[in-house]
């Protein structure tokens, strides 16, 4: 049998593929931005306009505050230069304020500062516990159908004109506190805060620092209560529900979750109320008997920065006389600005 072998093995060719070859198209490059976001140009213009207006408003407010400070300083410098007690005496001289003779003026702010701070701090001490109780009740205990009416009622206290508070304090509150004043004086007169002096206001009228502090406490109460309540209601619900699930009582929930969460807001609200109290004029003008000599008693009369300026309005026809009171106003402006700045700082830190 004869076998034949091929001289060369035929190479196999790959079968043609049934799938067509896809040739990629050239990259056209990125699409124009306006085709992807047809309204972005409009938005950018709106954002720029809004940002510009916001920046202008903030700058305008800052300019106004700075202009007020510069004006007060500009008007106060000539009077301070003519003060017989000098610049140091302006902060240390506590005797009578005398600007009648502009060639020999002598004036100082220690008494004004002491009365202003004492009345404001007394108002703060009286208002803060009550405001805290109101905020806790409205945010955690009050029925839902009473929260809004009671909240509006508290907020309405801030809308009452200060002259109405002054009339109420003068005609109603002061005489009504006579028995309390007699009791405190009888049992605590050994403490300088509750002592009386020969020219102290009568207990029958009640026109003293104590009455002024009570009136101011009512006036700043809604500011503190509203600020605190707004933060208390933002306490995370998960924290409250977790505490209740662990068997905590409602008061324990408030003490362990709500109060720690809103502590800084409560402090900030108190500082905002203090800023309001420092500059109050009309109510204290009517409630507190004016006196240039203050000896640190709650039953004494006194003059704050604001009431001193209001009392001296007839003297403002002379630049030097007006400048003496403008210098006192400059101190009040700086004090109020500092207190409000601290309050805003506390609130900003809490938001972060």
Automatic annotation (TrEMBL):
It comes from Corynebacterium poyangense. Part of the binding-protein-dependent transport system for phosphate; probably responsible for the translocation of the substrate across the membrane. GO terms for molecular function: phosphate transmembrane transporter activity. Belongs to the binding-protein-dependent transport system permease family. CysTW subfamily. Residues 113-343 form the ABC transmembrane type-1 domain. This is Phosphate transport system permease protein. GO terms for biological process: phosphate ion transport. InterPro entries: MetI-like, MetI-like_sf, Phosphate_PstC, Phosphate_Transport_Permease. Residues 1-37 are annotated as: Disordered. NCBIfam families: phosphate_pstC. The chain crosses the membrane at residues 49-74, 112-138, 150-168, 209-227, 322-343. GO terms for cellular component: plasma membrane. PROSITE patterns: ABC_TM1 (PS50928). It is a multi-pass membrane protein. It is found in: Cell membrane. The keyword ATP-binding does not apply.
